[in-house]
Amino acid sequence: MALIEDGFVPQIFAEGGYNSRLEIVKDLPEGKVIWHFDLTDMAAAKKILGNSACLMGNVPVSLLATGSPSGVRAYCKKLIQVAGKGGGFILAPGAGSNEAKLENLLAMVQAAKEYGEYR
Length: 119
Description:
By secondary structure, the protein is of the alpha/beta class. The chain has one domain (2-115). Helices cover 43% and strands 12% of the residues. The chain has helices at residues 2-5, 22-25, 42-49, 61-66, 69-83, 102-115; strands spanning 11-14, 34-37, 54-57, 89-90. It has a 4-stranded parallel β-sheet with strand order 1-2-3-4, covered by helices on one side. Helix 5 runs parallel beside helix 6 (102-115). The mean pLDDT is 94.
């Protein structure tokens, strides 16, 4: 809270699944936090936090490391449709992606460019 009071916007990394904690973390001040989710249900996160916080992440690092570019694009398209509706979403890997294939990272960026425009 001290960071928020000093004008910072913390990016909080929620490793693993935070599904059972979404109602609790909703208590943070509106528009003052970026939640970087790893394995959280993004439809639930958007429903519960979408009007109060920016959501980020949730592209599985396993998909980026072992999937195909077409699989990454399809996943990102769906994720953008769910979590990006109305804005307030940053497409990103769910966690550190040191083992990601370059072509899959490029596919994620292409999906963001193609599907990530808010209207």
